[in-house]
Design brief:
- By secondary structure, the chain is an alpha/beta fold.
- Helices cover about 30% and strands about 30% of the residues.
- A 7-stranded mixed beta sheet has the order 3-2-1-4-5-7-6.
- Helix 3 links the parallel strand 1 and strand 2.
Length: about 200
Amino acid sequence: MTDFDSRAATWDADPRKVERARRTAEAIARRVPALAGRRVLEYGCGTGLLGFALRPQVAAVTMADSSPGMLEELGRKIAASGLSGLTPLRLDLATDPPPAERFDLICSLMTLHHVPDTAALLRAFRDLLTPAGVVCLADLDAEDGTFHPPGVEVHHGFDRGALAEKLDAAGFRDARFETVFEIAKETPGGARSYPVFLVTAAVR
């Protein structure tokens, strides 16, 4: 958490992050029908790059994160934008009670691999969605552990079949995957490219 807090002020200065959010929003718009009327929860929003990219196409976006630093930066961005329909929310579904509001779409970008109990989070998402709700999650394909530095406690991406099974167990149907972008990184073994998928699934 301290790492994300300290990186919040300069997070948006990386044009690659902005581009990834734009491409993810475009993929969501292609895959989700009637997007214009949907109330969205962006979970693990950081500075809200994905939520800002989606805002012109949806009814409203609640932007949730557990990092005070990220939420402080997000608040400044919302105020400076003059946009309505953007609401920051301090939320960690692993420890906090869920909000009373229900959403038509829940999305996240590069958040899922930071959550220890993936199955529990997917069940929490299911409970927060309306009967016609959709989940849209963008994250790393399964990798060999070189994406993060040694000692960082995260999932090393996700096997698509195994994640589809977890979505089914959590109460979702029709999980569909596509690769939305790749992240190029220098590793001890040389340059590597790490694919990132978007999975969409509907409430069952």
